[in-house]
């Protein structure tokens, strides 16, 4: 025990000595460094040295006499600052006023290069890349926001479409009249001088337009689209089209009225719609030679008509017995034309169900069981063998009959039975339920419909103008997919042109959109749309710029959007945040006001939403002409 206590005392003594030694050495070192510091400061200032302690220490080293340059970390390759005047010049200046109604793919000067046979020169002929305009299309001086629907059905501002030609040419037919600074549309037409409403009532006496079985229609050679305008009150939506021809601005009038329309012509290529799209097709003195070219134009109408759909014809040669003198044609000529049309219709297996007064109606069969059986009698047109019936973008017309989907018995409707409107809108479309649309199931459709209801509700919370009833009328969805955006707006007083990009041909969904009772068109967004400037009040673009990355320039798509958007119109663009940041830089010099908002799920999503408004601006007033 005593030995243990002795060892403990020794250990404590050694520990105390060790601590004492450490403290002594530390004190000596501090004294040495203190003395060195006093000695350095006593040397006085050294030329070209910094005043910092570190530089003082370095300059006192044995190498202090070497020449050392100060490091410069500033960039030396910056561009010169622009002068204030240069910085304010827009990157895309306004175009000349002569381009106010420019339609790039239906340009009259370019069309002169092409064949006049079958009106080929009037179909789409788009500019080459080096011909694209890099300027913004101006609205005419005095342009006003169009009247709100339904007032717009009857009125439009003269300043917006400053053309009086149709008021003179069609004066007796009640197409359009000038009343002060407005146009008034009485609803008349070449074959319905009593007005479109009375004319539609006459059709309703022949086929049922009220029970919801007819929802989508197409008007070929539409004039100012009064037929389509007055069908809307019957819950029938018509796609109206006419060429840009001597009837100046007829489609432009339709769009100013708030009626769906496109520039188009039956020529040598298919109309930009899928097969089995329309419940009803209409021609009222539309000047299409139905009996020429082996009936190829009626064959195209057959392609886009739904099984059991109707074709309505009024005007020459129908009721030629009472009109041949007024039409400045011989009775024999008109009788022969009607006979040829009847023959073509029979060869397509159509049934003429009624002719009363100036109106004749044919019906397409609900399937092709009987039609295949009578091919021994009508050997032409043959059934098409290879072409995809839904392929319709610069696709050449063929003199062959588009076969309907197979059925198992004579009463079955080819492609599937459609519910009546409005149930049709949210019912699973037959193209999906049958499995013909690869990768899209009924559950996908239901989920997509729900998703777009939520998204549109979110849009309306941010864009109060979209939520304001009547603020917008003509809407464009640039990448419509299944039509969910349009379906979510069905209770608003708007219509939506649902565009399906042709680049998405692996999943061609436009047929689904028509089966829902909506309308749309195929479109390549590297090219201009077949419509006039200032067509749309609102444009929705979901992932368009990601889809067209490396296909064409972002600025060209934005300039086309600017062309078809009216002053004070709005845009919503959904895309990856990096894409939207690039878009934002471009629209900032296009006289758009925009901001980027978070995805409806929150800020952690890479996809963001850009909300933008095109500012109001027009061409300057024309300088007064002075007498020489």
Automatic annotation (TrEMBL):
Instruction: Please name the top-level EC class of this enzyme.
Output: transferase
Q: Which controlled-vocabulary keywords does the entry list?
A: Glycoprotein, Membrane, Methyltransferase, Signal-anchor, Transferase, Transmembrane, Transmembrane helix
In which family does this protein belong, per the annotation?
Belongs to the methyltransferase superfamily.
Q: What is its main location?
A: endoplasmic reticulum
Entry's transmembrane regions: 20-39
The compartments listed are: Endoplasmic reticulum membrane; Membrane
User: What molecular function terms (GO) are annotated for this protein?
Assistant: methyltransferase activity
**UniProt GO BP:** methylation
Record-listed E.C. numbers: 2.1.1.-
Q: Where is the signal peptide?
A: none
Tagged with keyword Electron transport: no
Answer yes or no on keyword Transmembrane helix: yes
Q: Provide GO CC annotations from the record.
A: endoplasmic reticulum membrane; endosome; trans-Golgi network
The family database entries (PANTHER family) matched by this protein are listed as:
METHYLTRANSFERASE PMT15-RELATED (PTHR10108:SF1059), SAM-DEPENDENT METHYLTRANSFERASE (PTHR10108)
Q: What is this protein called?
A: Methyltransferase
Q: Name one Pfam family in it.
A: Methyltransf_29
Q: Which domain of life is it from?
A: Eukaryota
The annotated topology with respect to the bilayer is: Single-pass type II membrane protein
User: Gene3D superfamilies from the entry?
Assistant: Vaccinia Virus protein VP39
């Amino acid at each position: 025990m005593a030995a243990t206590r002795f060892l403990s005392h020794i250990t404590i003594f050694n520990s105390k000595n060790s601590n004492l030694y450490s403290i002594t050495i530390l004190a000596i070192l501090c004294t040495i460094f203190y003395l060195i510091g006093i000695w350095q400061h006593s040397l006085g200032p050294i030329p070209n040295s910094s005043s910092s302690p570190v530089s003082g220490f370095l300059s006192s080293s044995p190498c202090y006499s070497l020449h050392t340059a100060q490091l410069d970390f500033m960039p030396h390759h910056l561009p010169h600052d622009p002068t204030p005047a240069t910085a304010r010049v827009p990157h895309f200046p306004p175009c000349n006023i002569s381009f106010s109604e420019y339609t790039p793919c239906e340009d009259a000067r370019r069309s002169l290069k092409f064949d006049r046979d079958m009106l080929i020169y009037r179909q789409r002929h788009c500019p080459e890349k080096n011909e694209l305009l890099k300027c913004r299309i101006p609205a005419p001086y005095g342009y006003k926001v169009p009247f709100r629907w339904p007032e717009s059905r009857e009125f439009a501002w003269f300043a917006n479409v400053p053309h009086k030609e149709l008021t003179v040419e069609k004066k007796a037919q009640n197409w359009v009249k000038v009343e002060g600074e407005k146009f008034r549309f009485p609803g008349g037409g070449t074959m319905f001088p009593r007005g479109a409403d009375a004319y539609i009532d006459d059709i309703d006496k022949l086929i049922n337009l009220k029970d919801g079985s007819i929802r989508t229609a197409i008007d070929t050679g539409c004039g100012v689209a009064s037929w389509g305008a007055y069908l809307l009150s019957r819950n029938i939506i018509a796609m109206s089209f006419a060429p840009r021809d001597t009837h100046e601005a007829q489609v432009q009038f339709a769009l100013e009225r708030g009626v769906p329309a496109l520039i188009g012509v039956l020529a040598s290529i298919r109309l930009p719609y899928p097969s089995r799209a329309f419940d009803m097709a209409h021609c009222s003195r539309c000047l299409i030679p139905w009996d020429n070219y082996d009936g190829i134009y009626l064959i195209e109408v057959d392609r886009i008509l739904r099984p059991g759909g109707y074709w309505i014809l009024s005007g020459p040669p129908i009721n030629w017995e009472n009109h041949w003198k007024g039409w400045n044609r011989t009775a024999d000529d008109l009788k022969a034309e009607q006979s040829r049309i009847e023959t073509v219709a029979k060869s397509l297996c159509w049934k003429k169900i009624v002719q009363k007064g100036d109106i004749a109606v044919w019906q397409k069969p609900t399937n092709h069981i009987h039609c295949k059986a009578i091919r021994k009698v009508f050997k032409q047109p043959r059934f098409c063998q290879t072409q995809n019936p839904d392929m319709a973008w610069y696709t050449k017309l063929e003199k062959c009959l588009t076969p309907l989907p197979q059925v198992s018995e004579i009463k079955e409707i080819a492609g599937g039975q459609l519910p009546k409107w409005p149930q049709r809108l949210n019912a699973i479309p037959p193209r999906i339920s049958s499995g013909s649309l690869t990768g899209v199931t009924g559950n996908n459709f239901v989920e997509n419909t729900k998703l777009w209801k939520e998204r549109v509700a979110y849009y309306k919370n941010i864009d109060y103008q979209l939520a304001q009833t009547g603020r917008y009328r003509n809407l464009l969805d640039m990448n419509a997919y299944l039509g969910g955006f349009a379906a979510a707006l069905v209770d608003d007083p708007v219509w939506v042109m649902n565009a399906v990009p042709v680049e998405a041909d692996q999943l061609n969904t436009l047929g689904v959109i028509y089966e829902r009772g909506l309308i749309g068109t195929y479109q390549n967004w590297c090219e201009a749309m077949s419509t006039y400037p200032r067509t749309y009040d609102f444009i929705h673009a979901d992932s368009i710029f990601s889809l067209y990355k490396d296909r064409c320039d972002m600025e060209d798509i934005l300039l086309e959007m600017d062309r078809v958007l009216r002053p004070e119109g709005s845009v919503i663009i959904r895309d990856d945040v990096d894409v939207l940041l690039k878009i934002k830089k471009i629209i900032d010099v296009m006289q758009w006001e925009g901001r980027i908002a978070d995805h409806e799920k929150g800020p952690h999503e890479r996809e963001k939403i850009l909300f933008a408004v095109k500012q109001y601006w027009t061409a300057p007033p024309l300088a007064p002409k002075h007498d020489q």
